[in-house]
Amino acid sequence: MAMSTGPKSRTMADPNMTPMIDVLLVLLVIFILAQQVLQRSIDVQLPVDKEDPAEPGLPPIVLEVAAGGAMLLNKQFVQPSQLEAMLRQVYADRPDKLLFIKALKGVTYGEILSIMDVAKGSGVEVLGAMLPTAEEWAMARPGGF
Question: What range defines the domain where residue 89 resides?
Fold first, then answer.
């Protein structure tokens, strides 16, 4: 509000707050809607209970990785250069393309990512992570199994 003091009063311009508040509210609504769109999430697949527990399924495929590049695919030693061919052979006639990766002590994140890339390239659709048992963790040697 403007106020004049004195006999010769000139008109003073009042700032009109209504358009500023309207713009502010519109921007607030836009930011609220944009925040909901920009939220990122991770897709997680939870296990589903089978209706018939007596039905035997295929055994899971587990790839154990030790430091230094040593790998065991279902307890069979695999050379890193032969991993893709071995995975293609294993998953050729399996309906579920699921691979569990178990990393032992000393394995870097980069090594696991490169193994995951090889697995995806060989036809594996779902990758799972397994934690090593306390005995496996304690017995893991830095150079291999």
Answer: 61-139
